[in-house]
Design a protein that fits this description.
By secondary structure, the chain is α/β, with parallel strands linked by helices. The chain folds into two domains: 147 residues, Rossmann fold; 72 residues, ACT domain (Alpha-Beta Plaits, 2-Layer Sandwich). Helix content is 27%, strand content 27%. Strands 3-2-1-4-7-14-15-16 form an eight-stranded mixed beta sheet, sandwiched between helices. Helix 1 packs across helix 2. The longest helix is centred in the N-terminal third of the chain and has 16 residues.
């Protein structure tokens, strides 16, 4: 028997949240996995802090209350790729700035992925948001460092994708990322880079959905400094 690993991850995340909660104010990421989680979470008495306009609209359509400020109790999101130390690449939806602001300020972070997103070494292109008026200079600076750089283009209009915060999204190929923290610092050392899709040191729990109709939970103890363990 085989199951949808995304559905298994969502089921695991909701069961984990139920065991850790109850929660009233929940920060919420962006993307298709998050949308599926919200669909399954209908009826819960959550107020949501959305990480993007997309999440705001979806949350309201599903009947959730939304807020713009407040003391988050937990932040929930997915990832495009994550290693076994809990570092990840995010930003496939271009919302990594809002996502990272919420993840950084939340006391507890739960990330949700299917098993194919769990890797030994991060290697996907890294989404990078840059200042719109100077994106060409930033692009050239990245290329001079030997990186492959593509300006992300949307399907609904011609031209570059512009984030909810007015920045242009570049997809930067670094190659295998064996030191995510160092890679993030190097990217941010370039003037004009607003934020990157490298998330390092922000994971408390990682819920991984498996095709075997099960899920596993990896615990990283970000706030307490504990060692990673499996529940």
């Amino acid at each position: 028997m085989s199951c949808d690993p995304v559905e298994e991850a969502v089921r695991g995340a909701l069961e984990l949240l139920d065991s850790l909660g109850p929660f009233k104010l929940v920060g919420m990421g962006t993307g298709s996995t998050v949308s599926r989680l919200l669909e399954r979470a209908k009826g819960r008495e959550w107020s949501l802090l959305p990480s993007s306009l997309d999440t705001l609209l979806r949350a309201r359509e599903m009947g959730f209350r939304t807020e713009h400020v407040g003391e988050m109790e937990v932040y929930v999101d997915s990832a495009d790729e994550v290693n076994r130390e809990g570092s990840m690449i995010k930003g496939g939806g271009g919302a990594m700035l809002g996502e990272k602001v919420l993840a950084f300020n939340s006391p507890l972070n739960v990330f949700v992925v299917s098993e194919n997103k769990l890797v030994e070494t991060l290697s996907r292109p890294v989404p990078v948001e840059v200042v719109r008026d100077f994106f060409w200079f930033v692009k050239r600076a990245l290329e001079r460092r030997g990186y492959g750089v593509a300006v992300r283009e949307g399907s609904g209009k011609r031209g570059a994708v512009v984030s909810d915060w007015g920045g242009v999204i570049l997809d930067v190929t670094l190659g295998p990322i064996r030191e995510p923290e160092r890679a993030e610092l190097e990217l941010k050392s370039i003037p004009g880079v607003v934020e990157t899709g490298i998330f390092h040191g922000l994971t408390d729990y990682l819920v991984v959905g498996h095709r075997s109709c099960s899920y596993s939970v990896l615990r990283f103890g970000r706030r307490k400094g504990g060692n990673r363990g499996e529940l």
